[in-house]
Structures are given as C-alpha cells and as structure tokens.
Amino acid sequence: MTATPDERPIRVLVAKAGLDGHDRGAKVVAAALRDAGFEVIYTGLRQTPEMIVTAALQEDVDAVGLSLHSGAHMTLFPRVLELLRAHGGDEILLTGGGIIPEADMETLRALGVGELFGPGTSLAALTNYIREEVAARRGVGSAPPDA
Amino acid sequence: MGSADERNARVADLAEAMAGAIRGGDRRALARGLTLVENESAQGEALLATLGSGGRAHRVGITGPPGAGKSTLVSALTAAWRGAGATVGVLAVDPSSPFTGGALLGDRIRMLAHTADEHVFIRSLASRGALGGLSAGVYDAADLLDAAGFDPVLLETVGVGQGEVEICRAADTTVVVLAPGSGDIVQGMKAGLLEIADVLVINQADREGADALEAALRSAVELRDGTPPPIVTTIATRGEGVEALRALLEARAASDEVLPQRRFERARARLRAAVDRRRADGFWAQRGEILEATARAVAAGESSAADAVRALLQEESR
Predict the structure, then answer these.
(1) How many domains is chain A built from?
(2) Domain contains B292
(3) What is the number of structural domains in chain B?
(4) What are the chain B neighbours of A4 within 8 Å (beta carbons)?
(5) In a domain, A5, yes or no
(6) FRET label pair with A126: which of A57, A147, B307, B316, CA 20 to 30 Å apart?
C-alpha cells in the first residue's frame, strides 16, 4: 500500500504542558483523535516547551495539541511556537485547549497559534478543525508530486 | 506537471539534498525522511538509494507480551549505551486500529529522559495493518537511522502474543522480554516467541514469581536445538541488570559469525517479501474482472477453490 503525501494518516502530538497534574482532558482528546483515524503521539504530563518541540520534530507531526490548565498559556503557547519556527517546524499546526479567556485566544491567534478550544467544545469540532487545517497546510507544502 | 523523466530527476535532486542534510546531522531532515520511507513513497526509495541502507548498526529487537516493560527496558538500554558513548536510534511500534486506522502511540512516555539528548532519536510508528508486531515501514526506517549513523538501532514491537515473530526478520538480535506473571505463557510456548529469542530477559525481577519464571524458561529453552539463549534478569525501572544486558548484546555484535549470517538471512527474507508483494500488486491490478467472475463461481458452488486458483494462475503464464 503506497500512501501519497495527501492521504497518509494525520499525525498529532498531544502534550500536557505545565506543572498541574490534570491530564484527563488530554487523554480524552487523544482517544478521540485516534478514533477519528489520526496517529496520536501521547507524551504525558509536565512537558516543557523544549520537550514538546523535540518530540514533535522527531515524530514529524502535522499538528501539536497542547492541553493546559495552569494559566500559563500566554507564556507556553508563544514559546512552543517560537521553538517550532526556530527548528524548521513552521508548517506544524499548534492548537490546543484549556481555560483560556477569549481576549488571550485572540492575541495568540495573532501570533500564529491556531484555534484554541475551551471547555465544552465538541470533540468532532476539534477533529474537523485539525483535519481541514492540516489538509490546507499540506496543500501548500513543498512536497513534490509523487512519481 | 512535467514528463515522467523530469519528475524522476526532481525526486532524485530532492533525495540528494535530503541525504546531504541527514549526513550533516540535520534532525528535521531525518524526521522528514522517515516519513517518506514510512509511507513507502518514491521519494523515500530515492532517498534510501542515495543514502545507502547503512549496514553498520546493530539492530536490536525488543519484543514481549504487553506490560512486560519493553519501553522501560528500551529507555534503560538507551541510557546504558549513551553512557558508553553510543548514539541510539529507537523505533517504537504500537498497533493501529483495524477499524479506523487511528493509533495511540504512547511509548515515548517511558523514554522522556532522552528527549533533550541530541544523540538519541526516537520515532513512534503505527503498525498500519501489518501483522506480526511491526509495521511495513519499519525495515526502511531502520535502514535510514542506520545510514544516519545511529548504532545501535532499537526496534520495539507492539505487545505480542506467541505468533508475532516478524521482529526476527528485522533485527540482528532479538531480545524477548518477559515479566513474572507471564509464567503460564511459557507453559504454552512450544512454538513462537521462545524460538526467536537470541536473549531472554526476565524484567521486573523484584516481583514475586521471578524465580519460577526463570525455572520455566530454562526448562523450555533446553528443548531448542543448539545453544540455549542466555537469560538475563533486570529491573529496568532502576536500571539493574541493564549494563550486563548491554555488555552481552555488545559481545554478540562483536562476533564475526553471528551478525553477518543473520544479516544475510534478513536480506534474503526481505527481498523475497518485497518481490512477492510487488508481484501480487501487479498480478491483481490486471485481474479485477476475472477474480470477480471466479469468486462468484466458487461462491455459487460451480467451481472448487482449487480449480479457480489453477485457472487464475494459468491466466498469469499467458
């Protein structure tokens, strides 16, 4: 079975950043993305931005989903984005969720972070968003046509 | 879209550039290269052709039932090899869902200690429908890590039962990891997992039942032809016994006889499998209609399966 660049499975890293120990949401999201047919790399609790970005680059993921409840979203999201860009991961979608005020979401979007999802978001909305956004980003990527 | 020649030239140029980057230690290029070979793309083939498929690294397969501690042992072995100055590549396979194709790849959780180490490269692979505990792309992925200079390359299978023995065709050395409590597995293991073990590891050796497991293993492997595999006990969470295991694996790699013979067998099996697969793809691509017609005849009881097979194969020789 040969997969062309566009039909290969979507790979997503799901990470829990920050020092709080609540990873239930991240696990639920990871399972939902798996059930949607994605290959989900789950790295567990208390990941630093450096660890998240190293794992994302080694795994060559299409998207990083960051879960955080520690209130540190205004430092962690920009830091992860900065490290991704510094190491050639510009086209990787950074998205995520947690308790994030709308105004902060706006600021983060302006930096280049993708949609962020608050409590009560349907898992289908998240899955569809990642699928559409990754398809768009793969479309403009530098991958040559498969011979 | 250019002509096929132009496209091939472009693929070759890209492969050349990527190979150069990988040789220069560019980890992003390596990660992208792994994606290409994992997807069995033409670019991945071109990359391996340019880079060469290594042939230097000791490929160590780690297999065993779920919960035996494979990932923890891989992490502890990685630490031991790093302590000895080696650069370590890790390929960890987890199962894909046969229904959705999705996969939850969680082996990295036990390997976080190495995330910041630039001399360790870890990649998770989904099995993508392959049976036998590995994925179809793992062979090429191991070639790529080998060519990129990682030695050893550790291959961790999905949690296996008895019959999933594909790892012995991908690895130079197969380590079968068991934990106390899998003793009753050993009872039934006349075939399969125990036959492919070059080294047996009893992990979680501080748990009750370790002695009984060792006794069961000793009596089981005595039934094998030739020299029985060594049995090593470890407590991977604390690193105990891991240096002894590493030393044993190193000694095996240093032998002039063991690995060359295994590599030859590995290459032969791989070539056969690859040719079989391509021939089968080509064969069926041209026989959609006749397959349909023959299958209807068999289903309706108008033809026996054996006659139908003969008819299909006769079609091939024409």
Answers:
(1) 1
(2) yes
(3) 3
(4) 39, 41
(5) no
(6) A57
ipTM score for this prediction: 0.88
Tally C-beta pairs within 8 A across A and B.
Answer: 109
pLDDT tens digits for range B47-101? 999 988 677 899 999 999 999 999 999 999 999 999 999 999 999 999 999 999 9
Which helix or strand (DSSP H or E) is residue B59 part of? strand B59-63
Q: What is the pLDDT of residue A143?
A: 47
Q: CA-CA distance, B80 to B247, in Å (whole number)?
A: 9
Q: Cα separation of B77 and B80, whole Å?
A: 5
Q: Which residue of B has its CA nearest to A27?
A: B104
* Residue ending a domain, choose from B223, B255, B287: B255
Residue B44: give the domain boundaries. Answer: 1-52
Count of C-beta atoms within a 10 Å radius of residue A87: 15
Helix (H) or strand (E) holding B174: strand B173-178
Give the residue on A whose Cα is nearest the Cα of B117. A54
Cβ of B103 within 8 Å of Cβ of A34? The answer is yes
Q: Pick from A84, A55, A99: which is nearest to B121 by CA?
A: A55
pLDDT tens-digit series, residues A71-85 = 889 999 999 999 999
Give the distance from residue B221's alpha carbon to the nearest chain A alpha carbon, in angstroms.
37
Q: How far apart are CA B54 and CA B148, in angstroms?
A: 8
Task: Check whether residue B26 and residue B134 sit in a common domain.
Answer: no
Residues of chain B short of pLDDT 50, as ranges, are 1
Residue in chain B closest to A50 (alpha carbons) equals B116
Does B11 contact A147 at a Cβ distance shorter than 8 Å? yes
Flag whether residue B10 sits within 8 Å of chain A, measured between CB atoms.
yes
